[in-house]
Amino acid sequence: MFLAPKEIKKETGDSLIYCPRRVLVSKEFTFDAAHHLFNYEGKCKALHGHTYRLQLAVSGFLDDCGMVYDFGDLKEIYKNELEPKLDHRYLNESLPYMNTTAENMVYWIYQTCAESLPSDRGLEMEYVRLYETPTSFAEFRKEWDID
């Protein structure tokens, strides 16, 4: 049962930040795409498709509103930078030259998203996870992005 509030709370002017620590936010997307693998002797050598599931995770400190990064802004990065190259595309043609394995793709997605984050907020791309099937994924994490 839901009880109606006795009153609608109003801002007091105090800080809206409760958490003083770095927090991770994540958003998930799906897209359909076709590809084939080079230099591979298996079923994936032939042209085929997947319904991919993609998770993007960003961390940062809360802003004055109490948010790390608006989920809508994360969606905009996907819509503007990733979806045009991924959704309903032939990945061997739409992505930079690579073998379009989940492992290669997840690194390209990570780099693309990291470059798209605003530079003035201390945001960090934490990880990208790309499911090629419901039970198989590749992941790239921030701590692995070292030379």
Summarize the entry for a quick read.
The chain has helices spanning 71-86, 91-94, 102-116, and strands spanning 23-35, 48-60, 89-90, 124-133, 136-141. The protein is α+β, with helices and mostly antiparallel strands and 147 residues long.
Describe this structure in words.
With 147 residues, this protein is of the alpha+beta class. The protein has a single domain, classed as Tetrahydropterin Synthase, Chain A. Helices cover 24% and strands 30% of the residues. The chain is built from 3 helices and 5 strands; from the N terminus they run E-E-H-E-H-H-E-E. Strands 3-1-2-4-5 form a 5-stranded mixed sheet. Helix 1 (71-86) crosses helix 3. It starts with 22 loop residues before the first strand and ends in a 6-residue tail after the last strand. The mean pLDDT is 96. GO terms for molecular function: 6-carboxytetrahydropterin synthase activity; 6-pyruvoyltetrahydropterin synthase activity. It catalyses: 7,8-dihydroneopterin 3'-triphosphate + H2O = 6-carboxy-5,6,7,8-tetrahydropterin + triphosphate + acetaldehyde + 2 H(+).
Record keyword descriptors for this entry:
Tetrahydropterin Synthase, Chain A, alpha+beta, 147 residues, 6-PTP_synth/QueD_sf, zinc, single chain, five-stranded mixed β-sheet, 6-pyruvoyltetrahydropterin synthase activity
CATH class: Alpha Beta
Mean pLDDT: 96
Fold-level CATH name: Tetrahydropterin Synthase, Chain A
> Main sheet: which strands, in order across?
3-1-2-4-5
Q: Helices and strands, in N-to-C order? A: EEHEHHEE
- How would the global form be characterised? elongated
- Major sheet summary line: 5 strands, mixed
CATH superfamily: 6-pyruvoyl tetrahydropterin synthase/QueD
Question: Over all CA atoms, what is the radius of gyration?
Answer: 19 Å
SS-based class: alpha+beta
By DSSP (H or I, 4+ residues per run), the number of helices equals: 3
DSSP E strands, number: 5
CATH architecture: 2-Layer Sandwich
Low-confidence stretches: none
Please give the domain count.
1
- Separation of the first and last Cα atoms: 55 Å
In terms of DSSP E residues, the strand content is 25-35%
User: Which percent bin holds the helix content?
Assistant: 10-25%
GO molecular function, one term: 6-carboxytetrahydropterin synthase activity
Pfam families: PTPS (PF01242)
EC number: 4.-.-.-
Pathway: Purine metabolism; 7-cyano-7-deazaguanine biosynthesis
